């Protein structure tokens, strides 16, 4: 199959309204996960426990009556959104918005971003399936275990530093997108004051947390301390140990909750 034929096939598949609805449901579930993460962060701020990341939020579902059904629905929604992102990577722009591709360097940036999001949402779908079948694990523990194995070799430490720099770059991109309000370009209609404020707070806070996780990965590699390379959960719990930790955690919880609310907006108005 040629590249042109592949694009034609993707065009036909993404014309399905059911596929688009399923992909939009992925934003709904993402928003709900961020609200749960925000709740866990708030609990930590007041002395509670929990894993402040996606695995911790999925574990909340697993422990509730009917949680398995919710997790399977989440897995399908995440998988649909992952496949939609893959379609965008193939097309070089929004699947149902041909004007979103300009054929320049920005198109290749969009392809790379879509491919990265494909991997992210596919991973979330897999995690949801694992929790639904009783085999879910903390992503923080998995990250720490993988980091410990990499730290046994000099080359592995270099890999961790590179990963940390990439994660910091992702966090910086989120902050940039929030401060400049570029996230409004992702919507089919202009955002009002409430939507804009939610997006600015949400993207900036999420970016700061992601960047903090990246910094900890580098610190973990330099100090040979795998516990620091446990992702967002480690970043949140590091905040808890700072002098103004409780205030910072409350701000982080509010910001992550705002990002969750913005995901609900995306489920309705995102350019697909």
From TrEMBL:
Asked whether the UniProt record includes Transmembrane among its keywords, one would answer yes
Give all residue intervals belonging to the DUF1206 domain.
25-91, 115-180, 201-269
**What keywords would UniProt list here?**
Membrane, Transmembrane, Transmembrane helix
| Family matches, as Pfam families | DUF1206
Annotated membrane-spanning segments are 25-46, 66-84, 115-138, 158-179, 200-224, 244-265
What is the name of this protein? DUF1206 domain-containing protein
Q: To which species is this protein native?
A: Gordonia aquimaris
């Amino acid at each position: 199959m040629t590249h042109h034929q592949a694009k034609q096939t993707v065009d036909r598949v993404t014309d399905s309204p059911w596929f688009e609805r399923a992909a939009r449901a992925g934003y709904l579930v993402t928003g709900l996960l961020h609200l749960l993460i925000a709740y866990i962060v708030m609990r930590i701020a007041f002395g509670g426990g929990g894993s402040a990341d996606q695995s911790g939020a999925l574990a909340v579902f697993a422990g509730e009556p009917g949680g398995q059904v919710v997790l399977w629905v989440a897995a399908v929604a995440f998988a649909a959104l992952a496949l939609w992102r893959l379609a965008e990577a193939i097309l070089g722009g929004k699947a149902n918005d041909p004007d979103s591709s300009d054929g320049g360097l920005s198109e290749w940036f969009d392809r790379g971003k879509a491919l990265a999001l494909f991997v992210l949402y596919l991973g979330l779908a897999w995690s949801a399936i694992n929790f639904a079948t009783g085999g879910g694990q903390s992503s923080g523990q998995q990250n720490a275990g993988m980091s410990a194995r990499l730290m046994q070799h000099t080359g592995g430490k270099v890999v961790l530093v590179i990963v940390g720099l990439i994660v910091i770059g992702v966090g910086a991109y989120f902050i940039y997108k929030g401060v400049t309000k570029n996230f409004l370009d992702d919507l089919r209609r202009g955002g009002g004051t409430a939507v804009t404020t939610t997006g600015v707070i949400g993207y900036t806070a999420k970016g700061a947390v992601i960047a903090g996780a990246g910094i900890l990965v580098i610190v973990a590699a330099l100090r040979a301390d795998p516990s620091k390379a446990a992702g967002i959960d480690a970043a949140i719990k590091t905040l808890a140990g700072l002098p103004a930790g409780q205030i910072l955690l409350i701000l982080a919880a509010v910001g992550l909750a705002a990002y969750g609310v913005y995901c609900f907006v995306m489920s309705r108005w995102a350019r697909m």
